[in-house]
Amino acid sequence: MLAREVATMDSLSHRHLIRLFEVIETANKVFLVTEWAPAGDMYTKVTVAGRLCERETKMYYRQVLSAVSYM
């Protein structure tokens, strides 16, 4: 499962998808090195800020649709 996710992430290049730079494996852990997301992830944004206004919701919805359409 993880190998498929890594292969998928490695093959994608879209402005609304996090880029994968490197995979580091240790004896019992795997680390995915991705680009820095200064705004954080959507889950944290919604749980910290609470409900998003309609304008923000539309903006994020368009970005998600763009990324999913690309995939």
UniProtKB/TrEMBL annotation:
Superkingdom: Eukaryota
UniProt keyword Cell wall biogenesis/degradation present: no
Protein kinase domain location: 1-71
PROSITE patterns: PROTEIN_KINASE_DOM (PS50011)
Molecular function in Gene Ontology: ATP binding; protein serine/threonine kinase activity
UniProt keyword annotations, A-Z: ATP-binding, Kinase, Nucleotide-binding, Serine/threonine-protein kinase, Transferase
PANTHER family (UniProt xref): SERINE/THREONINE-PROTEIN KINASE IAL-RELATED
Classification via InterPro entries: Aur-like, Prot_kinase_dom
Name this protein carries in UniProt: Protein kinase domain-containing protein
Pfam families: Pkinase
Entry binding sites for ATP: E35, W36, A37
Catalytic activity annotation: L-seryl-[protein] + ATP = O-phospho-L-seryl-[protein] + ADP + H(+); L-threonyl-[protein] + ATP = O-phospho-L-threonyl-[protein] + ADP + H(+)
Nucleotide-binding recorded as keyword: yes
